[in-house]
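step: validate -> pass
step: tokenize input -> pass
step: predict -> running
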Amino acid sequence: MARKWTDQDGRTYPLTIPTTDPGTGGTVRAYLLHRAKPHLPPWLAVGATGVVGALGNWRWGDSAAAGVGLTLASVTLTGVTWWAGKSTTQQRRLHSAITVAAASAWVTAACLAGPTTGPLDDLFLMGGPVVALSWNVRMVLRHNDTDPQGGGDKGLLEKVGLARAQIGQAKVQPNRVTAPLALEPGEQTNDDVSKALARIASALDLPVSAVRYHPSPDSSRRGELVIVPEDMLAELAEWEGPSNLGGSIAEPLVIGRYDDGSLLVIWLPGDPEAKRNSTHVLIAGGTGSGKGETALNLMTEILSRRDVLLWVSDPKAFQDFAPLRPGMDWSAEGGADTEVMVEAVKAVIPARTRWLGAHGYRQWIPAAADTQNDPAHSCQAGRACGCTGMPFLVAWFEEAANTLRNLGDDAFTGIAQEARSAGVSLIVSLQRPSYDQMSTSTRASLPSVIALGCDPRDEGFSLPEAVIDAGAHPGAWGNRRPGYCYVVSPGISEDRYPSPGRTFAFPARAVPLMEQLAAWALRQGATADPVTAGAVTAVAGRAYTGRAPASTPATDGPRLTAVQGDDMNDGQGYGLLVDPEDAGIDPEVELPGDQEGDDAPIFGQETGRKPSPKEARELFALALEEFERAGQMVVGPKDFMDWCDRNNLGRSWVSKRLKDAALEGRLEPTNTTGRWRIVPALAAA
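step: predict -> pass
step: emit ->
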């Protein structure tokens, strides 16, 4: 059943129309009496004033002292009335003071001279009804529901300290009431309304998130008060599949719905026609707030589009995204693989920007993903170049706090500042985007945010201050309402920023549909253009494969070999576990003696053979090739220590060879001290 609430004029929503007026008793006389009751107090006050004047004359008619006292009392009462009206409107304050001044002056004169002396009786008979009628007229206008200015009694606003504010005619929509608000000039600002939102919610018996204020961009004292009395998000909505399978990534991505039932959408690429900028996205929320399902909503929408590549790093080994992994263009499980992905994104940005500029694109648009058959977008003047199109690229870093700890708090700063012009969107997901985890420069370069429930103290890390002032409070949810969120992003109306939404839920039965979507993306999704593929391969080498069928189990390691007739297989048809490189060793041959350069095992010193300089260069080159074949494109001294132990080599020469290889162009330094990126052999050549 819909929840009811009462506005400042006493109207209850949803509106109900009674068949008979309550209290009428069904007769004309009773009806008239019922309608006249609210207008009787001013007339009763006029009658009481006349009685007081007559009684005062009987008691103090001949007292000079009483005259002084009555005059002082009259002045004091008028002043108190003016002072007490400070919290109400200027018109009500002035009307009240004039009424009290006139009544007290007549009472003073009547007490001293007599109520029928001179013109006093005529003043009473003419002025009393006029004053009473003035209050009746005011009451009629106040309760006139058709008044375009709203003119209500403003009981609600008086309670919350905004008595001088003028509230206009409310616009009532399904589960949404919007009322224009004009504050007292020079006395109140929009900030006063923002501070009063919690009290307004309390007066209406609603949660804080149900009351918002949208300040006017053209005025510091005008705006709209929005009240959503019923939480339509309490009913869970499940994901039923992508909203636009085969569409363009430039079209809106549907990830949930708002509290009034409208769709919750977000855009990643920009649109020069709509004056919308491309964006990066921060997904932030505490443990249990629904980040995983929010990511699934956005990720499934991305994978369902025909002109986008998705690169994902997830240190949790794709625990939540395993069904979608086959459809991703590149996936990394954290550690060195993520280091390579970060460096690869940095490398593709200038290459993609150069291509877009050469083809006349100031920013990525869907036409850039098609074959370039338009002479207006050609790298060859005067004719269509026919170049392969460039899909949009989304670089997603899940559980980014892990990556930031390993690579430094500014690991994404360069990407966030430069990627948008290259048709690249960065998505960063973490629990707490505080400034001790993510640099302020990176945070400032992430224009969009999906803010889920969090600790109340962390609201300022996720949402802009203006959105919080307008009524957005993800800290009120914590982890009690998974999926509830606020979305701030280009393309969304600013008055939507403080409106809560909820992302779709992904039950277990959605897994087969996600697997089908991944299969569709694998067959129909975009493949990397030559520019992007060349740039990423120059950095990642074999670590980047692009969209391809799932790989078969590796066959390079040790395996069982069948050896017929061997005395050691006991006739079972299976031999020993033998590495191919050891297959030719004769177990009867004596071991070789010490060779020049071998270490003597002395306590406290490293053991292992120390190769000559020439041999060291050759061995180090072989080591780099081995790492490159394995797809490990970021290495450090620790990785070579393990390699030295496996090959019985001394370790002291590794650091020097790292520096020499960097000078030769085979290694490039990364953001992390002591870590180096392998430049693929072909690129180095």
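step: describe -> The longest strand covers residues 176-182.
step: cleanup -> pass
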